[in-house]
Design goal:
By secondary structure, the chain is α+β, with helices and mostly antiparallel strands. It folds into 2 domains: about 90 residues, Roll (SH3 type barrels); about 40 residues. Strands 4-3-2-1-5 form a 5-stranded antiparallel β-sheet, with helices on one face. A hairpin with a 7-residue loop joins strand 2 and strand 3.
Length: about 150
């Protein structure tokens, strides 16, 4: 009987995406950071970059291939949230603008906190209008009485 030996070829890593995964792992994104995400947007046959800047609410799935992060910003008084895949080739770059210390891993409570703040501001505005109307109304009535 003849024995044959097989030699194993070394496994080479193939480049699947244009994303440098090592750099994305080293970003050290965490909840509470204010970040700017440059996203590639395709319009007809061209790509353009658009920035989405906001508060990082959560980071999910660690550093694995399906890792995602959620960013929230307020535009024209409306809260907008986007979920980005960490290793997506459509995300051009991620900039950390400000880092802050928070006591939670997920900052979902910010949604309700923002809504309460808006309600408080609306009450203040409506209260000022009512006070202004009460001040103007008696002055008009006293002039009419003369």
């Amino acid at each position: 009987m003849a024995t044959t030996t097989t030699t194993k070829k070394p496994v080479t890593s193939a480049v699947i995406t244009a994303v440098n995964t090592d750099d994305r792992k080293k970003l050290n994104l965490k909840a509470g950071d204010t970040i700017r995400v440059w996203q590639k947007i395709k319009e007809k046959d061209k790509f353009r970059l658009q920035a989405f800047e906001g508060l990082l609410l959560s980071r999910k799935h660690g550093n694995e291939a399906g890792a995602t992060f959620t960013v929230r910003k307020v535009m024209d008084g409306v809260g907008v949230e986007k979920i980005f895949p960490l290793y997506s080739p459509m995300v051009d770059k991620i900039e950390i603008l400000r880092s802050s210390k928070v006591r939670r891993a997920k900052l979902y409570f910010v949604r309700e906190k923002a809504a309460k703040e808006i309600r408080r501001q609306m009450r203040r505005i409506m209260g000022e209008k009512e006070v202004a109307a009460e001040v103007v109304a008696p002055a008009v009535e006293t002039e009419a009485a003369k």
